[in-house]
Amino acid sequence: MSFEGRIAEAVREAVREAYGLKLDGVHVERPNDPRHGDFATNVALANARVFRRNPREVAEALAGRLRAPFVREVEVAGPGFINFRLAPEAVWEEIGVIVREGTRYGRVSPSGDPINVEFVSANPTGPLHVAHGRHAAYGDALARILEAAGRRVSREYYFNDGGNQIRLFGESVADRYARLHGRTWPVSDPETLYKGDYTEEIARDLSREHGDALLRMEHEEALGVIADFAARWCMEDIKRTLKRVRVRFDTYFNEKSLYESGAVGETVQRLKKAGCAYEKDGALWLASSRFGDDKDRVLVKSDGSYTYVAPDIAYHLDKWSRGFRRAINILGADHAGYGMRLRAGLVALGLPEDFLDVELVRLVKLVREGQQVKFSKRAGNIVTLDELLDEVGVDVARYFYVRSSHRNEMNFDLDLAIQQSEENPVYYVQYAHARICSIFRRGGEEVPEAVPPGELAPEERLLALELIDFPRVVRGAADRREVHPVPAYLETLATRFHQFYTVHRVLVDDPEVRARRLALCAATRNILAAGLGLLGVRAPERM
């Protein structure tokens, strides 16, 4: 149990002893000012109505009854805060735990129903661009954080390989393919074609495989072959980029399978049978407003084709049938409202409201010298993720993508990203890890097997408390489905280490002091590596 949890339990016992009350709501936190102790609680103030006494009086009564051998000092401050300072022995004992457990410190064994985390899910109509990169970095890091917090996670990519967009993409490639052979392809509207140079890359590969044979086939049959080839080509390209950026998926699910299995039509029939779909103006509508949506949505258009709502409901029913009892969809900000209409269709068919959660990821702007830039050569009017990785590298890209909340738009500062200095936050954190490795390498030191207790200098205490806080940070990030608290924590931890290292020499003659400081270094190295690992970023031993 964390120190916050252990202190909260001791406070609850003090409340029971002093007032005969069973109190569940005891909040313990790290104060911003270290002069206010290592931990603090406002329990006397927050529960003033329950105690019906002056909060300061309650705080003093609880402080006098606290039974916590791992706490050295308890003081009452202000109108009723209780501040706690840990015993040095308890701190060093926990540092020893971090040293022994390594990068697994604070990880929780997996339990509960599996969670389906769907992210990226870019259409196979072109390469991944920089916005997809933010989705990939956030989604993969969130999955890692959820796993560290004890959730069972399955990563899923859903690609839309059906519908008009694939046909249009096929026509775009067919147009390039025909021109390679001195022919023309009948296109209804040239302005709607995909313009990126990658369509010519696909056309050249298509030509190498088929020659000009497709131009001698019946038009619709040839277009089907070309569209399938182009979609597969793009998915392979997408998978290569995802591998490069260290993102993996457990499942790739294609939309076409829902049509081929009849799942889409079956879902529509289930909605009609449940009385949740009705006909109007020649179309079939989902009565989604009855289930929390702001209006009803079209399921089947008047021409008989499905809107995206029908296959999406079928897809999430499939997730449920595969045993997932929680689904998290990571989507672009242009999908605001999507979750509500999809959830309405699922609830209409009996699924619980809390089955689906949607996280919207805001836009990314690439900035150089304060100005937004575009430098794509391959994809027309977009900047590909590969182009960004070529310029800044995988570590920097992944770290920068998740350093700010996914719920806010971000400016990706290219000037800062390429700096190899303390101004660059990922370099700053990685350098702290490399510096610790150099301490052990330079002195030929071994990680101490035991940490002898002793007093803590202020810089040692601040560093130790930051290390001990890591499990709470991970747990909170998982609960809120946020990633940015982890890089924020790592930067603070790196600062605490640099402050400690600047003031205190590690390799001193006193064996006990040396062992304690080496333990602090080893523990810091472990947590930096663990935290960077959650972000999919390397922890280098040399820089």
What does this structure look like?
The protein has a five-stranded parallel β-sheet, sandwiched between helices. A four-stranded antiparallel β-sheet has the order 1-2-4-3. It is built from 21 helices and 15 strands. A hairpin with a 3-residue loop joins strand 3 and strand 4. By secondary structure, it is of the alpha/beta class. The mean pLDDT is 94. The longest helix is centred in the middle third of the chain and has 26 residues. Helix 1 packs across helix 4 and helix 5 packs across helix 18. It catalyses: tRNA(Arg) + L-arginine + ATP = L-arginyl-tRNA(Arg) + AMP + diphosphate. It is an enzyme of class 6 (ligase).
The low-confidence runs, each spanning 5 or more residues with pLDDT under 50, are: none
What composes the largest sheet?
Answer: 5 strands, parallel
For the secondary structure, the number of strands is 15
Which value, in Å, is the CA radius of gyration? 29 Å
Q: Enter the CATH topology name of one domain.
A: Isoleucyl-tRNA Synthetase, Domain 1
Distance between the termini: 36 Å
Mean pLDDT: 94
Read across the widest sheet, the strand sequence of neighbours is 7-6-5-11-12
Helix content: 40-55%
CATH class of one domain: Mainly Alpha
